[in-house]
């Protein structure tokens, strides 16, 4: 399956993607994680991305599309993938269609996670990420680690993302509404969108998402 996960910052895309990718046996491809890996390795791409991410703005398309394409064309993604954070504007959505079309492929579905803005703000304020594995995501209240500052799964150090400050989150939400939301209509016109509520326990949201994707693939 080739699926796009869409939703505002803090909706739980990364959290859900870890479970969905495992259930569906496809790789989780997060452009945010790819940028953060480049930043921690000090690559030129990471240096370029960091200035935009710090400001809560989108990294330019010419950098992002090439990076996403390279990752999608790796061997483990030949049978499908779960895209998280890409595409994030109409130009990226059109580029993705062209990349898939060139390989005789198409998207199977777009899963839209709906969460009220006040919940998103609470989720981001308490988020803690693992330095060793970006798929290990915690929350100081909703999903606290057993030992403060330490990842339950691998013992990695937990940290707060640089772009999770209040001002940057406000900017990221603004960018989501102006740049990313229009792709939902773009995909609705192709009959690909399934919208679910991302409220409730993590496991409940995963069940809802799996059921929605099964309905979508059967239709
Ligand atoms: P990116 O890393 O993609 O961030 P985002 O889209 O803003 O999403 P987040 O990672 O903040 O949230 P999430 O939805 O994954 O939530 P999570 O699962 O962590 O992008 C960062 C930046 O990179 C962008 O601003 C941009 O600069 C750049 N970038 C990335 N892609 C780009 C692109 N395509 N083009 C250009 N620029 C790009 O959950 C949040 C918290 O909530 C966690 O603490 C979690 O434990 C908790 N939580 C999750 N689910 C639940 C639940 N059901 N109940 C209670 N708590 C929950």
UniProtKB/TrEMBL annotation:
GO biological process, one term: AMP salvage
Catalyses which reaction(s): AMP + ATP = 2 ADP
Predominant location: cytoplasm
Chain residue ranges for the region called NMP: 30-59
GO CC terms in record: cytoplasm
Binding site residues for AMP: 31, 36, 57-59, 85-88, 92, 161, 172
Gene3D superfamilies: P-loop containing nucleotide triphosphate hydrolases
InterPro entries xref list: Adenyl_kin_sub, Adenylat/UMP-CMP_kin, Adenylat_kinase_CS, Adenylate_kinase_lid-dom, Guanylate_kin-like_dom, P-loop_NTPase
EC number of the protein: 2.7.4.3
Subcellular location: Cytoplasm
Binding locations of ATP: 10-15, 127, 137-138, 200
Pfam families per UniProt: ADK, ADK_lid
Pathway(s) it belongs to: Purine metabolism; AMP biosynthesis via salvage pathway; AMP from ADP: step 1/1
Domain Guanylate kinase-like: 1-214
A GO molecular-function descriptor: AMP kinase activity
Function comment: Catalyzes the reversible transfer of the terminal phosphate group between ATP and AMP. Plays an important role in cellular energy homeostasis and in adenine nucleotide metabolism.
NCBIfam families, A to Z: adk, PRK00279.1-2, PRK00279.1-3, PRK14527.1
Domain remarks in the Swiss-Prot or TrEMBL record: Consists of three domains, a large central CORE domain and two small peripheral domains, NMPbind and LID, which undergo movements during catalysis. The LID domain closes over the site of phosphoryl transfer upon ATP binding. Assembling and dissambling the active center during each catalytic cycle provides an effective means to prevent ATP hydrolysis.
Family, as annotated: Belongs to the adenylate kinase family.
Protein name: Adenylate kinase
